[in-house]
Amino acid sequence: MTIYFVIPNFENISPPMVSSMIRYDEQICRYNTILIYDMPHPNILTGYLACYCNSVLAGLPVTTLEPLQRVQNAATRLVLNLSFRDHVKPALAKLHWLPVKFRIQYKLCLFMHHVHYISAPQYLSDAVQSVATASRNRRTGLRSADTANYVKRCTRTKFGERGFSFAGPAAWNNLPNDLQSCSNTNTDAFKKKLKTFFFQCAFETD
Q1: Most buried among 13, 16, 68, 148, using CB within 10 Å?
Q2: CA torsion 58→41→21→97, rounded to 10°?
Q3: CB-based burial, 126-141: b 16+ in 10 Å, e otherwise
Q4: Distance CA 172, CA 64 (A)
Q5: Which residue, 24, 5, 6, 19, is CA-closest to 67?
Q6: What does the pLDDT profile of the chain (206 residues) look like in tens digits?
Q7: 3-state secondary structure (DSSP) of residue 4
């Protein structure tokens, strides 16, 4: 069984829609500055920014994700009361907000963590297979069988790479060994380490 993350007509999101969302953010920033700074959890302002079910965005081209990133940038300027000319990357780092593409990878890796430690729904577990299991089934003695990596299902199309059977293992296999082997008894610790890893990828590399 292959699970595809699909958003109908998402790639047809129009520039006017993005512009209207950004203008709305600017209006809030102009008239409700006191409200913004009094909010105990400003992260709720970006609740519509692929925070929920963001794994459905896996495999989308950069040109499709760019409108969402622009809206997140506008929300960042809103929270910190920045002008349009201010650089947004340092602001995102200050708020500890991962850019959209890293949010997607974060969620995929979190799903794979649950799969790896047998705490995920059965339909997700059935969609992927570990390298170790595949090696045993084929009765081979590959050294890769000793890793925590998963097999990326073969696909002939770019659309097929959006399936969890490909996107999940692709994201998981790129994690360092210490993250893959993080204790299954403490998911919160894994989340913290995972976000630190992607934070470094997003903001501390050239």
Answers
A1: 68
A2: -40
A3: ebbbbbbebbeeeeee
A4: 23
A5: 19
A6: 444 444 444 455 555 555 555 555 555 444 444 334 444 444 444 444 445 667 788 888 888 889 889 989 998 998 898 988 899 999 999 999 999 999 999 999 999 999 999 889 999 999 999 998 887 766 555 555 568 899 998 888 888 889 999 999 999 999 999 899 887 778 899 999 999 999 999 998 65
A7: strand
Q: What would the two tokens of residue 17 be?
A: 């829609």
Torsion of CA 120, 124, 125, 129, to 10 degrees: -140
Instruction: Report how far residue 174's alpha carbon sits from residue 191's, in angstroms, rounded to the nearest whole number.
Output: 16
Cα three-residue angle 176-112-145, rounded to 5 degrees: 60
Using a 10 angstrom Cβ sphere, with 0-12 exposed, 13-18 middle and 19 or more buried, the burial of residue 75 is buried
Q: What is the DSSP string of 27-47?
A: HHHHH-HHHHHH-S-GGGGGT
Q: Do residues 77 and 29 lie in contact, with contact meaning Cβ atoms separated by under 8 Å?
A: yes
State both tokens at 152.
């990326």
Neighbours of 19 (CB within 10 A): 14
Q: What is the pTM of this model?
A: 0.76
